[in-house]
Amino acid sequence: SSSSSSSLPASYSNGQSKVVAWLQESEEMDKCAEELARCQSSLTELSRLLQSLEILQRTQSAPNFIDMQVPLSASMSPVRLHSSNPNLCAELADFQPPVSSRLTDSVEYASDYIKLQEEFCTIAQKAHSLLKSAFNTVAIEKEKIKQILSEQDQSDQSVQINSLRKSLSLALSQNAELRSRLNRIHSESILTEQVVSVNIIATPDEAAEQMGIPLTQQASNESRLSMSESVSEFFDAQEVLLSASSSENEGSDDESYVSDVSDNISEDNASVTDNVSRQMANGDFAGSSFRNGRRICLPAPCPDTSNINLWNILRNNIGKDLSKVSMPVELNEPLNTLQRMCEELEYSELLDKAAETEDPFERMVLVAAFAVSGYSSTYYRAGSKPFNPLLGESYECIREDKGFCFFSEQVSHHPPISACHCESKNFTFWQDVRWKNKFWGKSMEILPIGSVNLTIPRFGDHYEWNKVTTCVHNILSGRRWIEHYGEITIRNMKSSACLCKLTFVKGNYWSSNVNEVQGFVMDQEGKVVHRLFGKWHEGLYCGVPPSAKCVWRPGSMPTDYELYYGFTRFAIELNELCPELKDVLPRTDARFRPDQRHLEEGNLEMATSEKQRIEDVQRTRRKWNEENNVKHEPRFFKKVMDGNHRERWVSNNTYWDLRKNPGFINMEETVSLW
Fold first, then answer.
1. How many domains does the chain have?
2. Over the chain, what is the mean pLDDT?
3. Which of 197, 217, 228, 588 could be 481's S-S partner, Cβ–Cβ 3.0 to 4.6 Å?
4. In sequence order, what DSSP letters do the residues of 593-637 get, joined into one string?
């Protein structure tokens, strides 16, 4: 306040002199400044406590590998795909720490965590009170200034007075924002909502199941404040403004498998994108696909699989490709691989944002966030597997709310290859992926072979990246959980200005970095421009804490999601078939597949019968084709050779034209898949 008063000359008019005198004599502004200073100190302390809470929760977020692999003779709650073989994990028995030791460590964790929470709440309430007082003081002083200014003519107001009013208005705005943030932090930190339960009287066999302190992986359904949620509140997840980061040299010679697709593919896709965008604008895709209301729950919950002995099914297939092994229908979820590919577009708004971002490095950050977001829906899906598509099976998804049109097709059966294509006014997305499943006794690895492609026509960008390995642990016993590990390299095939590398960290017995993703965006000289970190199921951040910004966070899960295959809201909508769609979809669309539909409706007997019948029909058809030297030709995709002479499957640009004219309902089906 003293600096403000010294900047005003004493020779001003009567009204201005009154303002000067008020500023010199006012003690309220000094009091406000002191309160804001104390509030700033409290916020610094809150930041320190947040980091401590993060360390505690990250320590507890790793899966308890020994607890998750207890022998089947232990008393455990039933989980999906549970086995009854007691010998698989017997060798781990000697490595289990005493239950009393685990209970003591867990109680100590709970005590430290509660103390930190109590201290956090106390300081948050103190800062909130200081900020409220400062806010009221500023408001009172503002009214005094308005009263003084009203006593003088408008013509006598000076530039300095206007500047003072603008400064006070800006201060009020900033204080209101700070107050809102403190309110959010305070509301998330109420101890009554963060109950940490410890069953001290648990039996040794139940201790690992009932302990409420460790934040286990997918098997845990407790609603807790995760590290990502608390950190994102502090970082203000509403902002996607990417902060500048260091310029360290992080160049690496290790390159992941990425191919160079020829230019003509991108040009063809760009022209189709323009065509489809015009059709969407003209309402050519009218029908239920453009209705606002979509279903919010599946017709029936997932079945009980505790009576299925997987060991009898899988013991003769260790080290083999499981895509050729027929599984009970109860082990499936009511979606297939073609629909799973569409799930990767759940957060396509990241690509829309990238299409509006001028800076190429920030654009790459958004593309990286999109690549990570495609894995988030798998977090609660370790309990089941998607249906394997039949050769020639297809799937269509038009989302007017997201502004894209998607279709996919199973173009090869052995090896199984799925191809998809998605068009929007802002981007074109396509991929062809072959999945190889390997069963290793206690886990199953899913190795994708292929590449993902994305073009953003506005900037002439063509991004390409690979996928990482997926592993489902504890297939036969214990709590099953899923992880992704490996490295993704994202390149802009049209420019060498920037490159992105993402590492999905593999968990182990001694590490707590479960589900972590680390990465960076660097320029063509190898200097790091942006740093990325987070967890693939919680969110991705850009920068360095505490100034890092949240780029992406997954949406909340629907009610009782654990009873409905762990589906997200987006996944629940994918297999919905309304009357209007029946007349416009091709008969090969996955929505018409009877075994998958019966499973969704909870009719296991019919689902099992139809699955067996469909598999028999497929084997008969394949045998007939081989005997008559008939080669299957995909309807909506064609095979091309990329710049490295690798086979690629891309759209043949016929799907949307055939849908419009003559319409799939008016076309004779050469082969009935079902």
1. 1
2. 76
3. 217
4. -HHHHHHHTT-HHHHHHHHHHHHHHHHHHHHHHHHTTPPP--SSE
Contact 352, 382 (CB under 8 A): no
Helix (H, G, I), strand (E, B) or coil at 179: helix
Of the listed ranges 251-255, 338-342, 618-622, 669-673, the least confidently predicted one is 251-255
What residues are paired with 541 via a beta bridge?
Answer: 533, 550
CB 482 within 8 A of CB 475: no
- Residue whose pair of structure tokens reads 């052995």 in the numeric block: 414
- The SS3 call for residue 361 is helix
| Domain contains 17 | no
Burial class (CB within 10 angstroms; exposed 0-12, middle 13-18, buried 19+) of 507? buried
Q: Residue 518 domain-assigned? A: yes
What is the rounded CA–CA span in Å between residue 609 and residue 39? 68
Does 667 reside within a domain? no
Written as six digits, the tokens of 297 are 């729950």
Domain membership flag for residue 39 = no
Torsion of CA 589, 592, 593, 594, to 10 degrees: 180
Distances in Å between the alpha carbon of 108 and those of 514, 547, 639? 22, 31, 60
pLDDT of 11 > 50? The answer is: no
Which among 337, 310, 312, 334 is positioned nearest to 323, based on CA atoms? 337
Its domain, for residue 617, covers: 310-659
CB of 15 closer than 8 Å to CB of 93? no
- Domain with residue 381: its CATH number is 2.40.160.120
Going by C-alpha positions, the residue among 475, 480, 540 that lies closest to residue 504 is 540
CA separation for the pair 178, 35 (Å, rounded): 14
The total of other beta-carbon atoms located within 10 Å of residue 565's CB is 23
pLDDT for 467 beyond 70: yes
Query: What is the per-residue pLDDT across 143-168, written as a single tens digit (0 to 9) for each?
Result: 777 777 666 555 555 666 777 777 77
